[in-house]
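Researcher: Structure prediction, please.
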Amino acid sequence: MAQSKLSLAGGFHYNQDIYFVQAQAAQVARVSKASVPKAAIPKTGHFLSLSLSPPFPPLQQPDPYLWSAMIRLGEIDFINALPFKLSQEEAEFAEAQVVRASPKQLNQWLCEGRLDVSAISSACYLAHRHELTLIDGLSISAQRPVKSVLLFLPTDRQAITTPTTKHPATLFIPDTSETSVLLARYILEQPEHQWPIPYQLQVYQRGLARMTLTQATETGAAVLAIGDEALMLDGWQHPGYKVIDLAQAWHETKASPFVFGVWAVRNDWLAQDPKGNRARLNRLCGLLRHKKYHFQSDKVYQQALVDSLLTRYQTDGSPDTEQQQQQQQQARLHHYLTHALTYNLDLPHRMGLDEFDQTITCLNKHVTTVSDSTGTEAVMPPAGQSPTNHINQKKAQEEAYAPLA
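Model: Predicted structure follows.
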């Protein structure tokens, strides 16, 4: 086996040979359905011995609650976290059970102890920093126009500055993020925008950004769109609205990168098994950093990830039009992932995080939040499953096993 020159956290070297042997051992554990006490890779040089006791989970991926021997890892299911997305084999290598959800849901589950390690909103880390440890070197940040965090602001000053008690000034916010909402409030409350205070926050569900924006133009409300939905709204125009890229607005005000998301680990989870959990964490962090460096340095890999995203976007019209739209979308996504976003967490990023922490305390307190009308509670999904699909499955199960009247 040829050793890799890339040294990762935890003092081991990562290469495809080790990766292949570990993945094969996991497959044997699955097929035989027997308890495999240990599968060790010969310690030649810096090769790592990998424990398979208890065996890896079956293909259907059991609920994280039942698999406490593995790291319960939260992944953001937005495009901006794509460079860090673990494959099935990579999750097995890191001994991690992966749960994918929106940042806001991951925030909640990590704080409740239902996840051990997760990508979370920077606002969540700042609010719970005494319970969490920040993982160094990993973030989702921006210091230029990012086009995935957009504030649609009405330009009619009279409509903005003369709200009534019955129809107060309203900012529509998504139910998927906390950091972007706080950033939007900070930008909105700057004097140049003349936004009336107090005002209310109206929550809308994920997937309804375009519909919410259409309705908001009729009442003069502001709308915050984030993530994949904001990318789809790039280029949206309305005569009575202006579009503010919040990452750019922050950089013009503070001159530091804005950190949208970080990775954090629960302190009590580390304390449960200091030696074993620290080793698992080092292996996971090493893999995540390796994926980051690979994405930043390998242009072929970058293009492959962008190509994998194109199926998310629908095109219509003639074949020539479809091809042109696909090329434009490909260029946008490539620029977004490789130029608009940064994934480091160095000194400038930490300074930006500190500035954001100070900014939060200065936000106006006379703001009320109105929840969406659905009342749907987020449910912890099995690993690898989206919350929406899990909620639908739970409803189907409840209906199937409902007692007869």
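Model: Residues 1-62, 314-318, 373-405 have pLDDT under 50 and may be disordered.
Researcher: Thanks, that helps.
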